[in-house]
């Protein structure tokens, strides 16, 4: 949130009319970082957190595809983020399948 103005300006992205959207999105991403940190500390015990992470990634990818197909994507950088999230989602799903198969549930 602190640096979105210079980042958006550098990427030539129109600034949001109401910065509260940036605050809400930034807070969610920040808290999600803790979710991933907790899962990293104890992956086998954090399968439910990893499931939530995979769901979050799925929805980000879906929104990215929707905005791209609808012609309302604010900047191509969001497609790059969606592709990265897609890869992480696949890794999370593979982790869940591996831990289930090997009895780490």
Your description of this structure?
By secondary structure, this protein is mainly α. The protein has one domain. It has four helices and no strands. The model has no long low-confidence stretch (mean pLDDT 89).
The share of residues in extended strands comes to under 5%
Number of strands: 0
How many individual domains? 1
Helical/strand content category = mainly alpha
First-residue to last-residue Cα separation: 37 Å
Low-confidence regions: none
Binned, the helix content reads over 70%
What pattern of helices and strands is seen along the backbone? HHHH
Number of helices: 4
Give me the Rg, rounded: 16 Å
Rounded average pLDDT: 89
Which helices and strands, and how do they pair?
Elements (H helix, E strand, L loop, with lengths): L3 H8 L8 H22 L5 H24 L6 H25 L4
Helix pairs in contact: 2-3, 3-4
In short:
By secondary structure, the protein is mainly α.
Relevant terms:
mainly alpha
């Amino acid at each position: 949130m602190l640096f979105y103005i210079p980042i958006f300006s550098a990427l030539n992205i129109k600034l949001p009319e109401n910065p509260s959207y940036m605050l809400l999105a930034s807070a969610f991403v920040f808290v999600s970082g803790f979710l991933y940190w907790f899962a990293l500390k104890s992956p086998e015990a954090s399968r439910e957190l990893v499931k939530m992470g995979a769901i979050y990634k799925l929805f980000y990818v879906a929104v990215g595809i929707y905005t791209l197909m609808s012609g309302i994507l604010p900047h191509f950088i969001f497609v790059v983020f969606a592709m990265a999230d897609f890869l992480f989602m696949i890794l999370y799903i593979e982790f869940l399948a591996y831990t289930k198969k090997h009895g780490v549930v």
